[in-house]
Amino acid sequence: MGLYSHRGRNQQSHHNPVFGVRCRHWLSVTLFSCLLWGCSAAPTGMLPDAILDITPVKSESQAKYIQLSDEKNPTDQRREAADYLLALGSTESISLLNKSIVSNSDPQATDAVLQAIILSPSTPPTSLYDSLRGLLLRAEGNLRFRAAEAISRYNNDDAIRTNIIRLANNDKSQIEHRQAAILVLSRMHSRIAAQALINLTAPEQPDAIRADTYVALALLAGDNTRGQDRAKWLSWWELARTWSKDRWYASLINNTTRQNARQRLELEETTQYLFALGRSSYRNSSESDRPKILAYMLTHLRPVRQLAMELVLERILDRQPFDENLLTALRDRLTDSNANIRQLAALRLNDLLDQPAAKMIANRLQNKQEISQSVINADLLLLTNMPQANAVETALNLLENPALQHTAAGMLAAASEHSLLSETQAAQAAVYVRQMFKHPNGISPQSIRLLGKVGRDNDWNTIAELIDHEDPALRQAAAQAWADSDRSLKILADRVSDLIIQPIVIGAATQRGNDPFTLFELAKYPPEQQQNREAWGRALSAMAGRVSPDTVLTITEGILNIEHVNPEAAVLAESMITASLEAHQQHDQFKSEMMLLRLDRAEIWLKASNVAGAIGDYQYINQNISDLLMPHRSRFYRGFIKTQLQRDAIESAFDIARDLFKLIKLRGIAPTDDPIVNLFTTQAKYYIDAQRYEEAQLILDKLRDLLGDQISPDAALKLNQLDNQLSSP
């Protein structure tokens, strides 16, 4: 199914196989010579597509001529312009081609025209011949070879062929001109040309003419085994001249095929070597020169641009900077004549999150200037990361394209997140995506995500079912769509043990989790990986500030009541308690729960030797002791006493102990049997060992005063032992 209506035409290429291999070999060597030693010029952008798509023939010819003549354009884009002008065949377009051939100022434009003629499926207009002949006689090097190949396309034109043969035989002409004519004959591959070349091997001909003629015969016949042996060539000709036309061309094809195979292998090896050399040249250059080299390579021949794209990716992976000059060169490849280059450009600019590229791509899609599905797919991927409003309509239409609908759905979902869809567009997207869901191949992570953005209440039943899908990717997408909505997280929390869904629940709980069920379920399943465990802890703490304190109290006490609580769990409990206290400090209805949370936190801090933190909570509770339920006060006093002793606040510790003993007596328990007595004697022993005798004596005196005549025999024995240690330190 066609994507867009598109002006332009693709030409099939028919050319001489011998020349093709020699030509490609020459191109590879030349382009890498430029690449490695001629990278001083910086690239600039191409002409925009708008210039290239104008309906009137005259204007189109002029636009293509501008594209052909612009030295900033890559070679194959200039070739494309020459192809178009030649195929157009109008008087004006041929005149413009003649202008490029005659001009000496831009060899690359001339070369582009010659290649267009060489590869044209039909014989070129005879109105180009005079210009081509003039170029043949004045050009040097590779341009002369191209001109000869172009003129050889007139092989079936008797007048032109005769003109070339006369020039080759004219002993009054310059040797160089005769050699140029021989070059043309070598590429005509006809028996008339072969007869003319055989005649030029005569002994009376100049040595230079004869030498070139033998080379020409080898090229024409596709066989270089006879060298400069005239007898062998005459013998070959005596036989070949009698062949039928079919056998003549069969012989040429067989010979040139074998020769092509050898040359193709050599070309592949040479190309691989030169590409390795190109990579090495880039990697061995200074960091300051590398962006310039890459920018230059991006405007060169297609194989070089392909290599440049490889090096661009390498640069991205190495986290190297991209200056504006290099970014501009990369953006220009978005309109490259080669679809693979356009695709790679979009992918790399996506990696770089380049906003100008997003605008360019959106404009191209809006104007239907792209026809390659692989390129459109890459374009949509870029626009998923950098959505543009003017690409929305195109993406909506692409939802009907099976090859692109999923990427288009992903782009539309991203556009919806950025509020770039109108209500009408969102409704259209919903209709399209529901149609997609009617087919198994229409369900994808992207289409699920889009349905979550534009669907209605009944569409969430579909998404809910997909949360249990056997395909992990679809299950993950459905869970994420649910998490990104404002719907209850309970359906996800109920599946938190699923390792695919668990990270999604953690993320959603951090952002908006506010129900006890989700918090309880999440707390049951701590992740195994440390990184995920840290995120899990942050989620629990975030939710602790949104649920009621009694919920937090239940969970944290469950954590703290575990035997041998590890420090990590204690820190998590402290974080959750702190979040809850900060969120509900003004809520009077939770006073008792808040006091218990403070008591838990004080004990956590005390175990962690954070005496300053613990004393703050204990003092707060002491000031609001009426809010602490009676069953918890004994626990409070014991922790408070321990904290005061760690602060060396002995007097305060015994003041609190008196309150504790009052509470104990109310329960009918003898204070002398309370474990707090051991706490004081242990602290006194600590002071004696530390040679802090005054503090030790103060504790013993205060303890005797506190216990009075109710002291137990065991307690009295301990006190006497400590007295003896003090008397004989």
Automatic annotation (TrEMBL):
Source superkingdom: Bacteria
Matches recorded under InterPro entries: ARM-like (IPR011989), ARM-type_fold (IPR016024)
Cross-referenced SUPFAM superfamilies: ARM repeat
The name this protein goes by in its record: HEAT repeat domain-containing protein
Lineage: Bacteria, Pseudomonadati, Planctomycetota, Phycisphaerae, Phycisphaerales
